[in-house]
Write a structure and sequence with these properties.
By secondary structure, the protein is mainly α. It contains seven helices and three strands, in the order H-H-H-H-E-H-H-E-E-H. Helix 1 (about 1-25) packs antiparallel against helix 2 (about 30-50), helix 1 packs parallel to helix 3 and helix 2 (about 30-50) packs antiparallel against helix 3.
Amino acid sequence: MFYALLSLLLFSCSVIIHLFYCRNKPKAGLYVKAYGMIAFVFFYIYALVAEHWPLAQEGSLWSMPFKFTAGVLYLLLVPFYLTFYRHTQWGSPSHKILLALSRRGAMSLPEIVASVREEDFIATRLADLRASECVSYDNGRYVLRPYGKVIVKALEIMRYVLGRDMGG
């Protein structure tokens, strides 16, 4: 039990340090390598503690042998965080459409096309967003649905936490 908690604590510390690092750097890049180094240092700390620190009496709940499992948990959380970190900075067409609908309310297809000019496959993305129920088509206008609003809010929170605008 202790090892799982230690693993989660060290992972949380690595994310917090990475967030501080990102917020104090220029906003022009992704800092995936920096997080990789931070995560490695914290995993090394976990390995040292798990190997050399006698924790509790044998047979106690706190000393159950989850050293390896908790280490794997830590290693699996690293790419999980990096997935969300990278996605908050992509300016995908779907993301642009959702943000435009969130900011402006209901929009017609020409208005959406005008707001996302550089994309050639807007119709395909709109079909995907309709299929996933992020937007709906009502009276010739696309409207952001509740699920789309949740996605927009989550993306805005992550971008705020990371101190990034869309696209880097």
